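Need tokens for this chain, all 285 residues.
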Amino acid sequence: MQDQNLQPGSGQSVRSDLAVRALSALVMAPLALVAAWWGGWAFALLLTLSACAMSWELAGLLLGGASLSRSAGLALTAIIAIFLTTSGSPSLALAAGLIGLALEAARCLMRGWPVRPAFLAYPYLVLPLIALVWLRADPVLGREATLWILAVVWAIDICAYFSGRLIGGPKLAPRISPKKTWAGLIGGMVGAAIVGAVTAMLLGQGSVWALALVSASLALVEQAGDFVESGWKRRAGVKDASNLIPGHGGMLDRVDGLVAASLAATLIGLLHGGLHPASGALIWP
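Here are the structure tokens for all 285 residues:
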């Protein structure tokens, strides 16, 4: 997520930026919704394409440069993890992620490169991909849970953007992301809570208030995911992870919040629902 909860302001450049962002979202959102609706290999294909772009960008931010040689190992590990999880073997996908990380760490040691970035990049990319595929593959409410997490993240982004612009106020973490405000965070939490409440009512199961609270808490996780990527960009001295998406920057700039929120939602679902993370995340007493 880019710096969306901005302080108040106006002008031609702001309106132009918002128009470009809206047009890009109108192209990307239907693709994500269709893939999430169909699930299976359609969803896996979308995640594979996203993983390749994210691997390139993570290589630029963390692994010494955006190049095929630096991003190929990460991309291949992510693709294998997606394939194995889609095939019904998330445990093997986790093992593949560990093997990919170990091979990358060994290569870094042999070439005298820093090892720490690999231990950041591989879990950051691979674990959320496994989580998303696992969540969608759940035969009990997998589709509904995936659409819910997408709607929650989009609601956070939209409500944070407009509440931050309209209200402004104190900065959230100016050293990491100087344009984020507390008003934007609160607005995002409200938007997420509304999505959670509506989802519970549409499902006709579980507590409306409980899912609203869980959804609102994901706004905090999503913001943390944004701060992580913002910190990496700041250290790399770049504004965006890439220029892949007009008005949004790179793929990481668009999905940094989804990366964190989807992993958190799946973990919550597993802890609450056992082997059915979708119903565990959605249905609360």
